[in-house]
């Protein structure tokens, strides 16, 4: 069958009204019909189904707010146990709390945090898109001279989002100066533009570091998180420095609240810890932004 014929003949998704009446039976009937169709018409054998769900962690906020019954997770586990399909669940920084609250329901899954790139992969992301190529598209030369690419990595620590943000600004900088190559000095100039220059980043641009990604599930006030991070940044102005816990200034809350904020930032990999009670912000770009703007 052509793609058009498959789209025309495959079982139609059940309407929302039917799912609301009896979601378990209706969903199972649809799944069985879909498997039978793809087995007979497309693959010639039973397909291995993988269900991919993004923003799965938003279910947790709905459960916490009593808008979704906790029993839903038992139903979810039973679906997986029937082995009709496997699932890839993608969530935000509230996902660990979701898993901790439903350990039994998530015990069948493999937990993997996707955060920073390894240095080799990060350097590939930094260099490859703007490589100099010949007419056949073959790579001839990197535009990064000396340790310039490594310098970008030092500022972005392998964060895909901030690597893209930094490199986007770098390309604009190169276009404005009609430069074919960049050096360590150019990288520092671009960093200055993002930290305190005319195209300075805003606090909102660092939202992924300040919050869990779900406004309804943020445990701490943003102003207190910023205060703790600013305190750590002020004590770690040099690249390899760490800030001792005793140097983290208290927020308007209690000492316990500061400890809880630090623990959350460690769990979400915003901070690094050396030994016990020594911290620094992983993303050097953010560290320097805080020192220049708070």
Please outline the major beta sheet. 3 strands, antiparallel
User: Approximately what portion of the residues adopt beta-strand conformation?
Assistant: 5-15%
Oligomer: single chain
Instruction: Name the strands of the widest sheet in spatial order.
Output: 5-7-6
Helix content: 40-55%
Give the structural class.
mainly alpha
* Count of individual helical segments: 14
Please state the average pLDDT score.
Answer: 91
Please tell me what the overall shape is.
flat
- Gyration radius (Cα, Å) is 25 Å
| Low-confidence segments | none
Number of strands: 7
The sequence of SSEs as H and E is HHEHHEHHHEEHHHHHEHEEH
The N- to C-terminal Cα distance equals: 61 Å
Give a brief rundown of this model.
By secondary structure, the protein is mainly alpha-helical.
SSE blueprint and pairings:
Elements: H1 3-9, H2 16-43, E1 50-53, H3 58-64, H4 71-81, E2 86-89, H5 95-101, H6 103-106, H7 119-127, E3 132-133, E4 139-141, H8 148-156, H9 160-177, H10 184-195, H11 207-210, H12 222-234, E5 243-244, H13 255-267, E6 271-273, E7 278-281, H14 284-293
Parallel strand pairs: 1-2
Antiparallel strand pairs: 3-4, 5-7, 6-7
Helix pairs in contact: 7-8, 8-9, 8-10, 9-10, 12-14
